[in-house]
């Protein structure tokens, strides 16, 4: 599956995801700017914050308590479509997912 990131400045980057990868892992493997992922995907840092395109929100896995708590500490405002990209496992059903990057992660 491939997913699309839209940078805060409007630049669009499409990345191929590998088997079992999270959206964060796909982004960092491609060297994408805008995702820091300081904790390496362990749901401890909130520097992998993304805004999920509204049309995809209902198709994502539910927000676990630990993610929910971390989302209260993101560098840019938490919105109803905020998620941590390390907690979004990419499956074939998410092919085409669109994620918007916040202006900063720290
Ligand atoms: Fe740290 Fe997602 S990479 S919370």
Automatic annotation (TrEMBL):
<dbReference type="InterPro" id="IPR001055">
    <property type="entry name" value="Adrenodoxin-like"/>
</dbReference>
<dbReference type="InterPro" id="IPR036010">
    <property type="entry name" value="2Fe-2S_ferredoxin-like_sf"/>
</dbReference>
<feature type="domain" description="2Fe-2S ferredoxin-type">
    <location>
        <begin position="1"/>
        <end position="105"/>
    </location>
</feature>
<dbReference type="InterPro" id="IPR001041">
    <property type="entry name" value="2Fe-2S_ferredoxin-type"/>
</dbReference>
<dbReference type="GO" id="GO:0005829">
    <property type="term" value="C:cytosol"/>
</dbReference>
<keyword id="KW-0001">2Fe-2S</keyword>
<dbReference type="GO" id="GO:0051537">
    <property type="term" value="F:2 iron, 2 sulfur cluster binding"/>
</dbReference>
<dbReference type="GO" id="GO:0140647">
    <property type="term" value="P:P450-containing electron transport chain"/>
</dbReference>
<protein>
    <submittedName>
        <fullName>2Fe-2S iron-sulfur cluster binding domain-containing protein</fullName>
    </submittedName>
</protein>
<dbReference type="InterPro" id="IPR012675">
    <property type="entry name" value="Beta-grasp_dom_sf"/>
</dbReference>
<keyword id="KW-0408">Iron</keyword>
<comment type="similarity">
    <text>Belongs to the adrenodoxin/putidaredoxin family.</text>
</comment>
<dbReference type="GO" id="GO:0009055">
    <property type="term" value="F:electron transfer activity"/>
</dbReference>
<dbReference type="GO" id="GO:0046872">
    <property type="term" value="F:metal ion binding"/>
</dbReference>
<keyword id="KW-0479">Metal-binding</keyword>
<dbReference type="Pfam" id="PF00111">
    <property type="entry name" value="Fer2"/>
</dbReference>
<keyword id="KW-0411">Iron-sulfur</keyword>
């Amino acid at each position: 599956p491939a997913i699309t990131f839209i940078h805060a400045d409007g630049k669009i980057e499409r990345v191929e995801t590998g088997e079992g990868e999270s959206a964060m892992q796909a982004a960092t493997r491609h060297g994408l700017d805008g995702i820091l992922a300081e904790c390496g995907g362990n749901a401890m840092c909130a520097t992998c914050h993304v805004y999920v395109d509204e049309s995809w929100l209902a198709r994502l896995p539910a927000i676990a308590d630990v993610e929910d708590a971390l989302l209260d500490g993101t560098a840019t405002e938490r919105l109803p479509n905020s998620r941590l990209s390390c907690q979004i496992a990419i499956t074939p059903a998410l092919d085409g997912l669109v994620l918007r990057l916040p202006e900063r992660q720290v």
